[in-house]
Amino acid sequence: MPSTSKRKAPRADAAKAETLTDQAYNRLEEMIVTLKLAPGAILSEQALSVELGIGRTPIREALQRLAREGLVLVLPRKAILVTDTDPRKQLLVLEVRRELERLLARAGAERASVAERAQFQAIADGMEAAAEASDDIAFMRLDRELNALLAEAAHNEYAARTMRFLNGHSRRFWYLHYRQAADLPKIARLHADEARAIAKGKPERAAAASDKLIDYVESFTRATVGGEGRAVRSAGRARAAGA
Predict the structure, then answer these.
(1) What is the C-alpha to C-alpha distance for residues 194 and 43, in angstroms, rounded to an integer?
(2) What pTM was estimated for this model as a whole?
């Protein structure tokens, strides 16, 4: 049965509590994931500060966080680079993500507060709308929101910490390749199924929905590894260069 616990919902006041570093991180992470900052790009704290209208200290702290997650590489006194992405490494990411996301989905269905369940339902509805509209940016933002809520609602800081390292890589890889090898409405609906099962407090259904989602992501990823995948990666890099 759904939990009636009155745990505090951390996201309820997220907009108010968001620091400048959080804002810088969220905006830079989205720019990397959506290839506005393409793999191999050289970043400047000063230029990013001007572009985003945020001071250099929050920008620096955000870049350090992105470096810990492997999305940028900081070479002290030399350069800050956006890291590359590799389909073969992405399959290793999925090995870990499958187990952790199943755990978080099941735990979230068991432990989420009433407010968190409402947020899962809202994300499910948003994912359905993104599927209907084939809206990739709406999907990417909802995916990030779902990932954050999964981490919070499961109340397992160790699993959540590891998932935060994996999520940006998965989302960027998806955005880089999905136009050639995937179905945006389908994956949005798979995310909606997972979010809805958690909202309804159905642990086994949530775990099964998580597995079904990762099955699809894995099949999509494998499609980019072979000969066809090399063409996809080449097209993706060309698109990134023109972004």
Answers:
(1) 36
(2) 0.74
